[in-house]
Amino acid sequence: MVKKSFVGGIHPYDGKELTKDIPIKAVLPKGDLVYPLVQHIGAPAVAAVKVGDKVLAGQKIADAGGFVSAPVHATVSGKVKAIEPRRTVFGDRVMSIVVENDNYYEEIDAFPVKPLDQMTAEEIRERIREAGIVGMGGAGFPTFIKMSPREPDKIDYVIANCAECEPYLTSDYRRMLEEPENLIGGLKILLRLFVHARGILAIEDNKPACIDLLKELTKDDPRITVMELKTKYPQGAERQLIHATTGRLLNSSMLPADVGCIVSNVDTVITVNRAVTRGKPMMYRVVTVTGDAVASPGNFLVRIGTSYRQLIDEAGGFKHKPAKIISGGPMMGFALFDTDVPTTKTTSALLALSRDEVSEAGPCACINCGKCVEVCPGRVLPRKLADFAEQDNETAFLKYNGMECCECGSCSFICPARRHLTQSIKSMRRILLEKRKKGEIK
Ligand code: SF4
Ligand code: SF4
Asked: Which ligand neighbours the alpha carbon of 380 most closely?
């Protein structure tokens, strides 16, 4: 069978052998839990509790602050100790609710449970909204908005993004192996929202155990297909995934729904299942803690709000002094300067490396080798775009389709001159995305 893929891409060392065979371990948080009111794309959530209030796990502690926003729920029982700005993984200070954990883990029944076949599509969407579910693959876009396109009848595919192409990450891999029924169940729930759609479980071919398992469990369901993809980074980027699985193309100003697709990652689909069938809001996620500086790398089921520092302790601490700590994977993640920050709905991994190869060897002049162009899945000219970004030349950046970059990092990875191509392009894209939001540019 021909395996599906996209044009461009790279094959970095994947580091997955460190954690792929390690079962998910649940972590009971210690000390205070911190819930930033911004853990999603859109308006900040608004605190619905006050200092001194007693809360239970699963209780809503912040309401959505607008249409594009998401409520936040406590993940332990305890007392609201403060509502104040706290440092986040991005280094900024964000208004947060701090809950002093009472260590009883008393939980509320957040939502009534109703048999799935008695729930309407609108009730399912409302449940997803109230449960505060956002895209857990990194973007943090509120899931109920994604599941409410203008014309649901025109959605042809609901794609569960099981690619997990980012090096080192194995949280989705473990979820697929340990909870395949919950993943398939979640996909079936999403298919209830789109009556004409087929479900696709899109998996890279470096995960044969997951492919076999999911094929076996879906063999009697004609609506669901397990699709094998070539292992190549960034296979799991939304546009590349849609192209590889359906042959449909979209650009940076389009949504997947514009080409009849809905894409959701493994953890998000499982969280939808939990909210709809068990009445639980978004409280947990699986985080891979890994890297050669970590004593016992592993995959952890984490209550959102737990500190990164505790996750390092759970993984046995550091065996070498890390030269670099990254939140997320090595390609799309970002350097972490303080581990006293909370995990959030979008935390996927913590990677600690004993060498920082990027800072060890600084950039030099471009040698015009063209490798960055060869690997770019966005089919743009990374070298030129980085030059335009460094010159603040917005017009040329737009003319050369700079907005089509998906910030995958492949160009920086491959560049023999070690130029910080992605970093420069990313900074310019941030500025232009803001302008696009305000309607100043198309
Ligand atoms: S220009 Fe953007 S899309 Fe192309 S390789 Fe670089 S980061 Fe990836
Ligand atoms: S990969 Fe680096 S050295 Fe080669 S053309 Fe691109 S920017 Fe220049």
From this structure: 1
